[in-house]
């Protein structure tokens, strides 16, 4: 995979704590940092969490970083399939002295566990694919949007183990963030999610899935779909256990 220059930048966590984040220039890292830290796309500022959280789709670690900085009694398990992303997650957490409260797994979330999954990544051939080079199984190429045809874009493959939410959750798990380019449909079939109080993330209309199906996957939660594409996707969702 082509390497990009890594540049540090200062941000604020969702509740206003100073955070140093390393971004890969020329990629969507900056967009992700702004969305998760400054814009607080998952509404983390309103949460006060103690115990354990799960971050599925860690990417460069900014969601976990915000959670750890703003909730000093919280531990976070991060699931991310790509080794390049895991390296920058560790760099970002270490730079802010919170890496000791994080567990980072190179894996893909799904259900059931025990299998492996091929992750397609490093798509080449267009400005959009180059910009999203570090997004595994990018739905714009794999399932939705104007680029949806992974066969015509040269790319790389990484095989990783599948872990379930049951594998990840603990008795004190209080929060789940899931944004994994369509992998949510399999992962959320695990009924362990029925005991997690707060779930937030993004859903994608891949493999024929409709946005409304998220309500069926979380029958014990009050689920709200948000954003311009709430009916067509991809869109953000928030779920709170009744």
Which labels suit this protein?
Rossmann fold; alpha/beta; 242 residues; single chain
Describe this structure in words.
The chain is an alpha/beta fold and 242 residues long. The protein has a single domain (45-241), classed as 3-Layer(aba) Sandwich (Rossmann fold), CATH 3.40.50. 22% of the residues lie in helices and 30% in strands. The protein is built from 8 helices and 12 strands. The protein has a 7-stranded mixed β-sheet, with helices on one face. Strands 6-8-7 form a 3-stranded mixed β-sheet. β11 and β12 form a beta hairpin. The chain starts with 5 loop residues before the first strand and ends with a strand. 43% of the residues are buried. The model has no long low-confidence stretch (mean pLDDT 95).
Could you give a short description of this structure?
Helices cover 22% and strands 30% of the residues.
What secondary-structure arrangement, pairings included, does this model have?
Blueprint: E1 6-12, E2 18-24, H1 29-38, E3 51-56, H2 62-70, E4 74-80, H3 83-95, E5 102-106, E6 108-109, E7 116-121, H4 127-131, H5 139-142, E8 156-163, H6 165-168, E9 173-178, H7 184-187, E10 198-203, H8 213-217, E11 221-226, E12 235-241
Parallel strand pairs: 3-4, 3-9, 4-5, 6-8, 9-10
Antiparallel strand pairs: 1-2, 7-8, 10-12, 11-12
Shape: globular
Poorly predicted runs of 5 or more residues: none
CATH homology-level superfamily:
Vaccinia Virus protein VP39
Order of strands across the widest beta sheet?
5-4-3-9-10-12-11
Please tell me how large the radius of gyration is. Answer: 17 Å
Number of helices: 8
In total, the number of domains comes to 1
DSSP E strands, number: 12
Q: At the third CATH level, what is the topology name?
A: Rossmann fold
Instruction: Report the CATH architecture.
Output: 3-Layer(aba) Sandwich
Q: Structural class of the secondary elements?
A: alpha/beta
Overall CATH class: Alpha Beta
Distance between the termini: 45 Å
Beta-strand percent range:
25-35%
Order of helices and strands: EEHEHEHEEEHHEHEHEHEE
**DSSP helix fraction:** 10-25%
**pLDDT averaged over residues:** 95
Largest sheet: 7 strands, mixed
């Amino acid at each position: 995979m082509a390497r990009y220059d890594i540049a540090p930048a200062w941000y604020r966590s969702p509740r206003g704590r100073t955070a140093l984040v390393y971004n890969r220039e020329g990629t969507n890292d900056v967009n992700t940092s702004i969305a998760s830290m400054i814009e607080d796309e998952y509404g983390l500022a309103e949460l006060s969490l103690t115990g354990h959280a799960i971050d599925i789709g860690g990417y460069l670690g900014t969601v976990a970083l915000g959670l750890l900085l703003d909730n000093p009694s919280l531990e976070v398990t991060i699931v991310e399939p790509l080794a390049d992303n895991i390296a920058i997650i560790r760099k970002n957490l270490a730079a802010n002295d919170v890496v000791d409260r994080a567990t980072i797994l190179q894996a893909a979330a799904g259900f059931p566990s025990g299998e492996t999954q091929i992750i397609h990544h490093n798509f080449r051939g267009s400005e959009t694919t180059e910009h999203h080079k570090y997004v595994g199984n990018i739905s714009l190429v794999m399932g939705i949007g104007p680029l949806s045809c992974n066969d015509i874009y040269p790319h790389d493959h990484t095989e990783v183990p599948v872990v379930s939410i049951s594998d990840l959750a603990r008795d004190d798990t209080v929060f789940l963030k899931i944004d994994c380019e369509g992998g949510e449909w399999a992962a959320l079939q695990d009924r362990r999610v029925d005991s997690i109080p707060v779930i937030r993330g993004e859903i994608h209309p891949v493999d024929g899935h409709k946005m409304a199906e998220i309500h069926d996957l979380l029958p014990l939660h009050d689920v709200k779909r948000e954003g311009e594409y709430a009916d067509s996707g991809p869109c953000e969702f928030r779920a709170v256990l009744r």
